[in-house]
Amino acid sequence: MNTDITYQRLGDYIREVNLRNRDLKVTRLLGVGLEKKFFPSIANIIGTDLSNYKIIRKGQFGCKFMSVGRDGILPVSLLDDDEPAIISSAYYAFEVNDPNELLPEYLMMWLRRPEFDRELWFYSGGDVRGGVNYEAFCDMPIIVPTLARQREIVAEYETLDNRIRLNEQMIAKLEETAQALYRKMFVDGVDKENLPEGWRWGKIGDLFELQRGFDLPSQDRIDGDFPIYASTGIAEYHNAYKVEPPCVVTGRSGTIGEVFYVDKRCWPLNTTLWVKDFKNTPSFFVYYKLKELELGKTVSGFAAVPTLNRNDVHMMESSIPPTDLLVEFEGEMKVIHQRLSISKQENEKLTELQSLLLARMGK
Predict the structure, then answer these.
(1) Is the dihedral of CA 294, 299, 305, 309 positive or negative?
(2) For 95-122, how does the pLDDT look when each residue is reduced to its tens digit (9 = 90+)?
(3) What pLDDT is recorded for position 131?
(4) Is residue 151 in some structural domain?
(5) What string of H, E and C letters represents the secondary structure of 278-329?
(6) What is the model's pLDDT at position 110?
(7) What are the DSSP E strand ranges found in 27-91?
(8) pLDDT tens digits, 253-262
């Protein structure tokens, strides 16, 4: 650790912004999440008076302090585009006093550090209802290197961030291509009363068999290399596994109908269904077939906790393509998913490098 580091008081470098939307000219409503990013608000604002909402502009921050004790994370983000926005009046807005002393982008990096969240959580007392106030936030310490050094740190981080975004665009394009190919080969133009030669009509249970996921005893040690899949995706990692790859998992309760293709040993939780028997049906076809079914829309909302019944899925009607077409599709998908895997692995490494860079800021 560098003993020459001098911590400054954050409040000496920022000031609160409290501009209200009195003339209602700004209509773009944003929220900020635990990922420390702004997102378009999904709140129903019909009939809502937006005149008391706060306006933020490029280079300004929005955050909410009331949930720090519960979540252990300060939802905060920097607005980095030219279009102004409004945020809830319950949020705080602030800006840097002098960008020639402290770059807003450098400050946003500092606020992303897990160490910052942990210290702020301590201020909240760790109570689930505990929040922090703006004054406590201003008393938080920050290291402010020279402006030249700040620019270097920001440039390094943004280089990684840009590469991650490019990979995310590539991933989205590949997934779009795969979905389009599936629909072209197995959905569009397929008529139950006039099936192409070699096709037949049957049930999902003729193609594959689903099984409820596994309980995870509370005394089990949860760390290791094997992903634990919940209905929303990877929850944690385990030192043991239940299923060999390839594995296709979908949400059974909680978030129903999300589908995951898993190419490594894993532990599907009891909130999921997983494909126990592919019945000689190629795994990528099974994955896209489950996505096509949109199972989240099939579950009744009458139960207090809606649950997907595997037998109901097995009884769903479906076209059954000939084997040669399934084999052709599987070959195409292997190429696409190999590229997907490379991009996703690269993003994991880039994200790790970003985390290391944030950690070094405090040393």
Answers:
(1) negative
(2) 999 999 999 999 999 999 999 999 888 8
(3) 67
(4) no
(5) CCCCCHHHHHHHHHHHCHHHCCCCCCCCCECCHHHHHCCEEEECCHHHHHHH
(6) 97
(7) 30-32, 38-40, 54-56, 60-63, 76-78, 85-87
(8) 988 989 999 9
Whether 222 and 347 map to the same domain: the answer is yes
Torsion angle of C-alpha atoms 117, 118, 123, 128, degrees rounded to 10: 90
Beta bridge partners of 238: 226
Evaluate whether residue 37 is within a structural domain. Answer: yes
Q: Is residue 356 part of a domain?
A: no
Residue 305 has pLDDT above 60, yes or no: yes
**In which residue are the tokens 């193609």 written?**
207
CB 16 within 8 A of CB 93: yes
Looking at the 3D structure of the chain, how many domains does it have? 2
Question: Is there a single domain that holds both residue 78 and residue 224?
Answer: no
Tell me what pLDDT residue 127 has.
54
| Prediction pTM value | 0.80
DSSP class per residue in 242-276: SBPSSEEEEESBSS-S-EEEE-S-BEEBTTEEEEE
Chain segment 197-218, per-residue pLDDT in tens = 999 999 999 999 999 999 988 7
Region 120-149 average pLDDT: 82
Domain membership of residue 108 as a residue range: 7-144
How long is the chain?
363
Rounded CA-CA distance 140/88 in Å is: 24
Average pLDDT, the chain: 91
